[in-house]
Amino acid sequence: MSTGESMSNSQTEHEALQAAKPGRQRTSHQGRRLRYEGTRFQCPHCKASSEIRTGRMVSDTMREAIYACTNVECGHTFVVLSEVARTLSPSATPDPTVNLPLSTHVRRDMVRVVLDNAGESEHQARYTLPVTGDLFAGNTDTS
């Protein structure tokens, strides 16, 4: 077998392998992959991923973020408002200035029974600011 003939056979095999591969869809219109999945928001125009460019807290329950589409052919930049809608599980360190509705799936009667019958155990907060008082207790004014 000559060198030219083996080269021709290997090229023929290569072409046959390429033809047998399933066609790969072109994905360049989808934008580049994002480093952080949590910052992903779909562009409303081209449906590519977009990423947060900047953001700020508007209130304790609302955040405004500016997103930019990763598809260079689209280039859409837009503002997203993220808002806390309801409580699924009550906080162990609630802020009395934050008023969120409690989800309908929470069994309020059971929460009351648990609070009324639960004993107490000492706890040292490690990740939150010290609690100034029991929000579920009545008026504790000592003056």
Note down, in words, how this protein is organized.
The protein has 143 residues and is an alpha+beta fold. It has 2 helices and 4 strands; from the N terminus they run αββββα. It is elongated, with a radius of gyration of 29 Å. The mean pLDDT is 77.
Outline the secondary-structure elements.
Blueprint: H1 3-20, E1 41-42, E2 49-59, E3 62-69, E4 77-83, H2 108-117
Antiparallel strand pairs: 1-2, 2-3, 3-4
Q: Percentage of helical residues?
A: 10-25%
> Into which percentage range does the β-strand content fall?
15-25%
* SSE topology string: HEEEEH
Number of strands: 4
Number of helices: 2
Mean pLDDT: 77
Q: Major beta sheet, specifics?
A: 4 strands, antiparallel
Summarize the structure.
With about 140 residues, this protein is α+β, with helices and mostly antiparallel strands. It is about 20% helix and about 20% strand. The chain contains two helices and four strands, in the order αββββα.
